[in-house]
From TrEMBL, chains A, B:
Family listed: Belongs to the FPP/GGPP synthase family.
Lineage of origin: Bacteria, Pseudomonadati, Campylobacterota, Epsilonproteobacteria, Campylobacterales
Keywords: Magnesium, Metal-binding, Transferase
Short name of one Pfam family: polyprenyl_synt
Protein's name according to its UniProt entry: Octaprenyl-diphosphate synthase
Top-rank taxon, per record: Bacteria
PANTHER family: ALL TRANS-POLYPRENYL-DIPHOSPHATE SYNTHASE PDSS1 (PTHR12001:SF69), GERANYLGERANYL PYROPHOSPHATE SYNTHASE (PTHR12001)
Cofactor: Mg(2+)
Entry's Gene Ontology molecular function annotations: metal ion binding; prenyltransferase activity
Annotated GO biological process: isoprenoid biosynthetic process
Length: 293, 293
């Protein structure tokens, strides 16, 4: 049985292009959350191949995301668009995406549908993310639907497909992945507010500056008086001075917006565990909730 | 039986996103060469769906190509990247690509493999096109292999998959599509030299200025003395004055490079027709060869 790394390497070698292999070698390998989830459900030849396909899709989506978000770094290293330019990042993303889809054709139609549908959903999520950052969105449902699409859909597809390969109850593992994905994103959004900029590697309150009205802001807005709402709006998409930053952070604390967001993520995480027996999958959920607190 | 347009429209509606539908509506429909080829092999419910999938893939690849080539126009209208920005063009391309792959899962593994493999090949071709424009390439094989990948592979997949759906001889139709695609690109390369800039909608000798050493240049270079080769090289990737343009055009004529390129395309086209009985498929080949002469 070939290892996950060997299979992924083979996919890249199949492409038979030195330039692709060279750039690919410069992509840091990341947390590999999706493969880890799959292997904690089932580890066999098929699931290793599936995990490699999903990781390739994930890498492709990040390559394009970083172009779209003008991100200069990824995993604390220079992003591919930063090092090689946007065009190379776009082309490499297309190459890896299509290789992943080609390999996916070896799987049952049911699994191929689940994974390819998730890619379609996540690419719509990326667009919604950009569109929602164009104005001060106050609709929580729009936000939650967007992060489900952008962040959770491929995680959900990973655990769902893993359950099918393992012959487990599909819905239990599908819900696990979906809830984990949404909770993960909410914790990320909280960290953007609570972590200091050094730990985070980017300025605090960065999301709000970039137009992203994440869950804590949505809750704080909902709970505030008209005047406070207007003041918060006036700070949207701006570089804030120290006094303004402090005011925003205090608002997010005083309205319990941070705490409520965390509890929302915790509730999702608890629901995720219904029917899940694997201790490792329970640990992964806990580690996500404990990322900073 | 739903029409091709209805199926394509349904794919877009499935995505359930107004912004996507709005931008999509602004993409001119183009020549629809690939659907036309498929329908001249077989027209039924399955082949209409396949043609819509392949057209969606083609549209996605053009969306990304135009970003990569900084193209401001497409089919004589503003390109999507020009109107909506590069980021939207990238995202829309990803959305349409993944929708196409999702729909492809409804087909036999064999067809899904052929089409997805072609997408992988064409995205490698796009990268090779960019890399080959970084230096004065004198290797004809590299050039021909690149245009096969970039232009012919999806056309080849269209006629190949069409033949499978029709129960025809696969190799005959595969060769037809492949040769047609390569011939099409060579004629395009010739037109960049022989057409006047008004008809073409871009300056003549534009390819050479952008670093693309196409077949006529490769042949002229091969047939020239060292001094002429050096002079040609000195004009590479430059805006040429009238005298220089004339010199290049005369070189391409005097070495028979245009004529040889045309004959190369014609030979491919003749080979393409071996075993092809459909008069319409013969006509399409002729119309490509006669595009300008």
């Amino acid at each position: 049985m070939n290892s996950f790394d060997t299979v992924l390497e083979q996919f890249i070698n199949d492409l038979n292009n030195n330039f692709v292999a060279d750039i690919y070698a410069n992509i840091p390998s990341g947390k590999r959350l999706r493969p880890k989830l799959i292997f904690n459900i089932i580890k066999n030849e098929q699931s290793i191949k599936l995990a490699a396909i999903i990781e390739l899709i994930h890498i492709s989506s990040l390559l394009h995301d970083d172009v779209i978000d003008d991100a200069l770094t990824r995993r604390n290293e220079n992003s591919i668009n930063n090092t090689y330019g946007n065009k190379t990042a776009i082309m490499l993303g297309d190459i890896l995406y299509s290789k992943a889809f080609y390999e996916l054709t070896a799987f049952d139609t049911k699994i191929a549908k689940i994974v390819s549908k998730a890619v379609s959903t996540l690419s719509i999520g990326e667009l919604e993310d950009v569109k929602l950052a164009e104005f001060f969105n106050t609709d929580k449902e729009l936000y939650l639907s967007m992060i489900y699409k952008k962040t959770a859909s491929l995680i959900e597809a990973s655990t769902h497909a893993g359950a099918i390969l393992a012959g487990h109850d599909e819905n239990i593992y599908k819900t696990y992945g979906k809830n984990l994905g949404v909770a993960f994103q909410i914790i990320d959004d909280i960290l953007d507010i609570t972590e200091n900029s050094q730990t985070l590697g980017k300025p605090a309150l960065n999301d709000f500056k970039e137009g992203k009205v994440t869950l804590p802001y949505l809750i704080a807005y909902e709970k505030s008086s008209f005047n406070t709402q207007e003041k918060l709006k006036s700070m949207y998409k701006r570089v804030l001075n120290k006094e303004e930053s402090t005011w925003v952070k205090e608002l997010l604390n005083n309205t319990n917006a941070i705490k409520d967001s965390y509890n929302y993520a915790k509730t999702l995480a608890n629901q995720a565990l219904t029917g899940i027996k694997e201790p490792k999958l329970q640990e992964i959920i806990s580690s996500i909730l404990d990322r900073d607190f």
